[in-house]
Amino acid sequence: MNATDTIFALSSGGLPSGVAVIRLSGPESRNAVEQLCGSVPAPRRASLLSIRKRNGDKLDEGLVLFFPGPHSFTGEDCAELQIHGGRATVKAVLAALASFEGLRVAEAGEFSRRAFTNGRMDLVEVEGLADLIAAETEMQRRLAVEQASGGLSRLYDSWAKRLTHGRAMIEAELDFADEDDVPGSVAGSIWNDMRALEEEITNHLSGARAGEILRDGLHVVIAGPPNAGKSSLLNHLARRDVAIVTDIPGTTRDVLHVDLDLSGFAVRLYDTAGLRETDDIVEREGIRRAQLSMATAHLVLLLSEDAAAHWEEMLGDYAGPVIRVQTKTDIALPALREVRADAMISVRTGEGIPALLDLVASYLPDMESGSALALPTRQRHALHLETARVHIVSALEAQSAGLDIQAEHLRLAGQALGRVTGRVDVEHLLDVIFSEFCIGK
Ligand SMILES: Nc1nc2c(c(=O)[nH]1)N(C=O)[C@@H](CNc1ccc(C(=O)N[C@@H](CCC(=O)O)C(=O)O)cc1)CN2
Ligand SMILES: Nc1nc2c(ncn2[C@@H]2O[C@H](COP(=O)(O)OP(=O)(O)OP(=O)(O)O)[C@@H](O)[C@H]2O)c(=O)[nH]1
Ligand SMILES: [Mg+2]
């Protein structure tokens, strides 16, 4: 990977498509456009031009744009060829680009990586952009667009600035400590703000669970005895035949999951092996996996067709929230319909399903509609934010240790914040973060 190469890639999605966008970035972008199109359009203006091979053969006619650096997505010279999205057309134009000296196909995330390297985006924005491209539900989109457009970064930068100010005040006091005419304590004025900052970070961190649920989905595990109708419920909610359903107890062994959109929120629903004592090695492994998924669930739907079920016994070590669901109400005798469950459903008739979904939705984070979503979305963020918070507390509590020790804690707090946005040594993280992207981004 050489950062002075000029890179290109198909940045639009699957082919064929109405229009396909090929992006270029790097010093040879201008030359490549000139060779292929006969001229270079005015900066940032779309021009309809013919795209030709060196021998004059016409490949296509498309809208062509040139973005001189540094005012471009990557900060380098960039260009776009917006051509017809036929497979052969795209293949021919990509081949023509590859034939130029100094041009090569981009790696996954390489455009965004250059934007980061050139200071066009910080790490939090890059992660937001990756989430925006991956977003499948309205809440994932809202969270990601706020993060990608710098909402979170501005917050973290404003915190870092307050820490720097605090340190500057302490330094000033240390420098002038032996001069008699310095009035009062300069440093004394910052501690109220540091206390307030610590509180703001604590508040922000309390949204970390909501942020992770919004981004990754609420993890809901369907559990219960064999034959309860777990796989049938998964298939019903997925509206697809995802899991094998038979009337033989012990059908499901592997953990399967589907992603649902529940009023704009992502929900990841897991189907698991029926819980029972068994000598079958394969089934036992399935049950072990079922228990493992329960251990990390946000919510368990405990299914049983028997209203007299001993619900608690099936939960094992799981201590999180549970919705007890009585299944197959279409065949259950009215006499058996004692209300010992939280929900009663039939996937045959659809009875009780909307009520069950309402119950599940009540475990989703409480989001005000329309409000900006400035929540920590990744453990990486939460870990550094917590480190920053702890250092601020240490600074506040180190009164007797002296101002220079307090200043050092504030410096470490600022460094932790800098690791979130990528302004402080994050080199080792970059490959991981950028590999999340697709080629062309
Ligand atoms: N055709 C096309 N659409 C696209 C993109 C793209 O690269 N090409 N984007 C790719 O992700 C997104 C838009 N993001 C972009 C971000 C910055 C600049 C850019 O040229 N910025 C300059 C000039 C800004 C201005 O004109 O005010 C700059 O910031 O200096 C372009 C696209 C979504 N839509
Ligand atoms: N009448 C009726 N039958 C149902 C209903 N839900 C599931 N069944 C039947 O119950 C049997 C077991 O269903 P599954 O969905 O495979 O049960 P499971 O809980 O996944 O079972 P295991 O994977 O073995 O643990 C199948 O024959 C289903 O057709 C329902 O609402 N009404
Ligand atoms: Mg099953």
UniProtKB/TrEMBL annotation:
**Name of the featured protein:** tRNA modification GTPase MnmE
Q: What functional role does this protein have?
A: Exhibits a very high intrinsic GTPase hydrolysis rate. Involved in the addition of a carboxymethylaminomethyl (cmnm) group at the wobble position (U34) of certain tRNAs, forming tRNA-cmnm(5)s(2)U34.
Residues given in the record as K(+) binding sites = N227, T246, I248, T251
Q: Which family does it belong to?
A: Belongs to the TRAFAC class TrmE-Era-EngA-EngB-Septin-like GTPase superfamily. TrmE GTPase family.
UniProt binding sites for GTP? 227-232, 246-252, 271-274
Could you tell me the Gene Ontology terms of the biological process aspect for this record? tRNA methylation; tRNA wobble uridine modification
Binding positions (Mg(2+))? S231, T252
Its lineage opens with: Bacteria, Pseudomonadati, Pseudomonadota, Alphaproteobacteria, Hyphomicrobiales
What is its subcellular localisation?
Cytoplasm
The UniProt GO MF terms for this protein read:
GTP binding; GTPase activity; metal ion binding
List its EC numbers. 3.6.-.-
Domain named TrmE-type G: which ranges?
217-365
Entry binding sites for (6S)-5-formyl-5,6,7,8-tetrahydrofolate:
R23, E80, R120, K441
How is this protein organized at the quaternary level? Answer: Homodimer. Heterotetramer of two MnmE and two MnmG subunits.
GO cellular component term of the entry, any? cytoplasm
Source domain of life is: Bacteria
Question: How many cofactors are bound and how?
Answer: Binds 1 potassium ion per subunit.
